[in-house]
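Example record for the data management plan.
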Amino acid sequence: MVEGMTLDEFEQVTIDYYVNLQRIKKAETGNNAKLDFQIKVYQNKLSSLDIPSEEYEM
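Corresponding structural encoding:
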């Protein structure tokens, strides 16, 4: 967690970033392995915070 940030703030930043990745994925017309990897990383981060990533998928 980032120093000076509350857990609620950290969770919100993580959710926002994941949603942004989902938007990019939805607009993507081809394969993007780096994007897919980043999505998996953030799914794991959300999971570690007990936040189901499925609720934020497009």
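Summary line stored alongside the record: The helical segments are 7-27, 33-48.
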